[in-house]
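Page 47, continued from p. 46.
Same chain as before, 223 aa.
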Amino acid sequence: MKYNTIISGQFVSRPNRFIAQVQVDGAMQTVHVKNTGRCKELLLPGADVRLEVCDNPNRKTKYDLVAVYKPSLGWVNIDSQAPNKVVQEWLQTEGYDLVRPEYTYGGSRIDFYMEKGEEKYLLEVKGCTLEVDGIGYFPDAPTLRGVKHLHELAKAAQQGYHCAIGFVIQMEGVAEVRPNTATHPQFAEALAQARTAGVKVLFLLCRVEPDGLAITQAREWKN
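Result:
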């Protein structure tokens, strides 16, 4: 997944979850934040950030904040649209006969439905940007939608679908993701129930590039 045009800036503040104040070439700019999560451990005053230049002349903000530098880790992509884009690219290389995004199952839209011969697959995608001591954690804010998706996947697994939830790790140097029990215990419970029902948990490791993101490895949570 590649961005069109990327420039650098320094984070100043985040007045609300949709916008941030960023210094670009000595001038203050109001930019769109492509992540409604908290990201409070990343978006710190003075942090180096990467901005995508928006090509829509009618938009109020001309930049999107897509990545931030964490001194202990390196660049972290925080674009909440990036995980689905890189997963779709990755799935096209995995030998499926059909890959269909935004598939309606039960009362939810699951990110991907795939077919391989007679076998049917469902994959829900979650982006991980929260790291503590080398481990990724999800979510960084409560997600009722995430809990609902896990319940749907558990039902589908019992009906014969091959189901998985894939955590796209939007940073390098992190190889696994654990549920953030302190922030949302219900998600942790739903994840455990889904695994018991046969839902696989995939860790999708990424290379964070100056102008994009790419999946480099898929690992399954076995223990």
